[in-house]
Amino acid sequence: MMSAPDLMSFALMVAFISLAVAQLMCMIRLVLGPNTGDRILALDTMVINALGLVILLGIHQGVRIYFEVSLLIAMLGFVSTVALARFILRGDIIE
Amino acid sequence: MSLEIIGTYATALFLLIGSGFALVAVLGLLKFNDSMTRLHAPTKVGTVGIGALLLASMTYSYASGAPSMHELLIMAFLFVTAPISANFIAKVNIHQRACETPPAPPRDDTWSTLNSPEDSQERSGSGAS
Are the beta carbons of A55 and B49 separated by less than 8 Å? Predict the structure, then answer.
């Protein structure tokens, strides 16, 4: 059995790599995406994965400031997804 | 085994759970072959995947001796907004007829996302003439 700090750094490494791979695979869907809904979904997932990466960076460096960064990214991601979807649905963002 | 070591193990477990969910969700986004099916997988990362990562961040802050609960704020925000954005994307799919159109609503002639202004003008115009 691994010691706790070893397991921790291993888990951090695995998490970083898998989130980076997830980000790349989202980009593939963003380029392929047959219709607009898929592209919006891929962008939304990319924002969420970026949020995860920022949280991981915060754990890795042990810095508190990343909390605010991730909160801002979460809010911007939600607003941009809704704005894109509304633009497709209504042709206008704020009517 | 002290509480600190247990906390570190729990952090590692939550990290692995969160990253596993993120990877599986994006695999679903790539491999499924229908817009609405593809919508199903990545909406889980927003709640479970990021939830587990935030839980890892919280347990790690407790294990390393600087406790913080701020992450609950992000978690609450994500849990509220993830279904809304998924609903909007589903509406875009219905609007663009990227999926099978759902059966008509019982007390109206069409879904409001599919109802374009030109259509209703035409209908009312032909009804008047």
Answer: no
Residue B62 one-letter amino acid: Y
> Would you give per-residue pLDDT tens digits along chain A (95 residues)?
678 888 889 999 999 999 999 999 999 999 987 888 899 999 999 999 999 999 999 999 988 888 889 999 999 999 999 999 999 888 877 77
CATH of the domain at A53: 1.10.287
The values of phi and psi at residue B56, to 5°, are -60, -45
Cα distances (Å, whole numbers) of residue B28 to A53, B23, B92, B114:
20, 9, 19, 28
| Chain B residue numbers touching A88 (CB-CB < 8 A) | 92, 95-96
Its domain, for residue A14, covers 4-90
Look at chain A and report how many structural domains it folds into.
Answer: 1
**Residue A8 is nearest to which of B8, B23, B29, comparing CB atoms?**
B8
Is A95 inside any structural domain? Answer: no
| Tens-place pLDDT, residues A66-87 | 888 999 999 999 999 999 999 9
CA dihedral over B79, A56, A67, A41, signed as positive or negative: negative
CB contact under 8 A, B22 and A49: yes
